[in-house]
Amino acid sequence: MDKLQRYRFVCTLTFGDVYGQIIAWLVVLLISLAASMGLMGARQPLYALVSVGLILVLSLPFLLFAFVTTLVNHIEFATVDPAAETAEKNDAAFAQQTAQAAG
């Protein structure tokens, strides 16, 4: 059990990491909506609805796969130095006591 306490779970994912994926998916959605509007204008509303549904159903798994793999790539297990950890805890406790005394 002592070995598990030497590691810290760190997630370094930021919005900027998935921003490109969101933009790409929005482009796909806008293109599919433009295609469906073209089919609506050609008096084929059933094909328009089917094409939008098909594009959404087929693109969503790729989007979720991209999000999950990006998230997994940003998960790290950082080693924790026990001496530094106790120093951090002492500093945090001192800051909390100072804040309570001041306030």
Describe the protein's architecture and organization:
The chain is mainly α and 103 residues long. The protein has one domain (4-102). 75% of the residues lie in helices and 10% in strands. A two-stranded antiparallel ribbon has the order 1-2. It starts with 6 loop residues before the first strand and ends with a helix.
Strand ordering within the main sheet: 1-2
- What's the tally of helices? 3
Largest sheet, in brief, is:
2 strands, antiparallel
Q: What's the number of extended β-strand segments?
A: 2
Q: Spell the H/E element sequence.
A: EHHEH
Q: Outline, from the CA principal axes?
A: elongated
Mean pLDDT: 80
* Unreliable stretches covering 5 or more consecutive residues: none
Q: What is the terminal separation in angstroms? A: 39 Å
Structural class: mainly alpha
Tally of domains: 1
User: What fraction of the residues are assigned to beta strands by DSSP?
Assistant: 5-15%
Secondary-structure blueprint of this entry?
Layout: E1 7-11, H1 15-41, H2 45-73, E2 75-79, H3 82-102
Antiparallel strand pairs: 1-2
Give structural attributes.
103 residues; two-stranded antiparallel sheet; single chain; mainly alpha
Concise summary:
This protein has helices at residues 15-41, 45-73, 82-102; strands spanning 7-11, 75-79. By secondary structure, it is mainly alpha-helical.
